[in-house]
Amino acid sequence: MSTFQKLRKEERETRKSLIVDAAMDLFSQKEFHKIGMRDIAKRAGISAAAIYRYFPSRDDVFVEALVRHMQVVEDLYEEKVKEGNTSLEDLALGSVDYLLQNESVFQMMGHFMITGQIQPKALDRYNAMQRRFLNILEKVNSQIEISNNNRLVTHAIYASIVGVVMAFKNYPGRSPDEIRRHIYRLVQIVSNVFSTGRIPENLQNLPAKEIAGAAEKDG
Known about the structure:
This protein is mainly α. It contains ten helices and no strands.
């Protein structure tokens, strides 16, 4: 590759990153269906026509943003798995932490999961990202106490972890701290049931007041 070609490639990647950052910025402020390519282009400081040179559709922009964010998590845990320094609970709680701290990533993932509407090229990228995470989860699953290194079981673990976050992230009447604590407990139960067949002792006999949290305050 010539120096000129290398510079052109670097410039293209820089522009793509600007577009992705603009999309993420918008997504933290507006609902997904209210954001169009013109909005993203305007926020990125390029023309509406120019944005299509880098991404053929809005879905491609958001999937690229999602992939880039999830790659950070996947790279971290892939390294930990290689070193044997992680457990199913560690992986589950780390993933939940990332989703709770990155609202736009959570919203994008939820949108694609619920609607299932993704352009074909973007779908390939999305599926590749999901397969990579499932592969990491499967490697951890293969090392646990009651290992059942079955892809179907891995899917069940993944669905349980993501499902807990989707079900309780906006728990009515609870404070952010109460929600986080409740989600952590549920994810600990899920990961321990899959890995040991048992509920952690410290979570077996919680009083109703501890579980209900803010609901008790509402009387």
